[in-house]
């Protein structure tokens, strides 16, 4: 039986605008205890994603100021995303292939949810998918610049 992402995604998604500072993005992450925040433009369309790792490696480690715009450190190239109607198995496979732990869920150009590897792992019927995804995600890759 296929299960859609809409049934497991977090629909209360916190976002930041691409012009906000990395300090503001970090504050959102800290306040809501999350490790990734989708980045949106003024129309609400997703233009990137910023993670706690992005802030650490692409700003703090490089000596960037806390007021650096999110757009300078976010991941923006080919944002991997799913749709609410996507099957959970497909999402887990996509996350494994792309080595990502969090998948923005987009509908009509707007972010409507987020699915984390943990969301898939908590459902016993997806134990194998979660394990395979984590194995692929954990394979070392070259750092992005």
TrEMBL record:
SMART domains: CBS (SM00116). Keywords: CBS domain. The keyword Ribosomal protein does not apply. CDD domains: CBS_pair_HRP1_like (cd04622). It holds the Pfam family CBS. PROSITE patterns: CBS. The keyword Ubl conjugation does not apply. Residues 9-66, 74-131 form the CBS domain. This is CBS domain-containing protein. It comes from Virgibacillus tibetensis.
